[in-house]
Design goal:
Blueprint lengths: L6 H11 L2 E2 L5 E9 L2 E8 H18 L19
Antiparallel strand pairs: 1-2, 2-3
Length: about 80
């Protein structure tokens, strides 16, 4: 593809729908499935990709929740659980 993106990013863009950077270098374009057999050209800018990343993190956290933080208060100190 290009030397602008890591191999990992390029592979994901391909899996999303053969996405690539546009000539104006402000968006990426690719194909999105609209129904069972129809595709549509779509364009995503940086804000769209950030929103997509937030959605991916939310979905990942539902599928595999991160561990709960461990309290840093030692036993016997104020605020320690009993």
């Amino acid at each position: 593809m290009t030397e602008e993106f890591s191999k990992n990013a390029e592979e994901w863009m391909k899996q999303w729908g053969h996405f690539g950077i546009t000539y104006d270098r402000k968006t990426i374009k690719g194909w999105a499935l609209i129904n069972d057999d129809e595709y549509e050209r779509v364009y995503y800018d940086a804000n769209d990709l950030r929103k997509m990343a937030e959605a991916c993190i939310e979905i990942a956290n539902v599928l595999n929740p991160p561990p709960s933080p461990v309290p840093l208060v030692a036993e016997g100190q104020e605020g320690a659980e009993k």
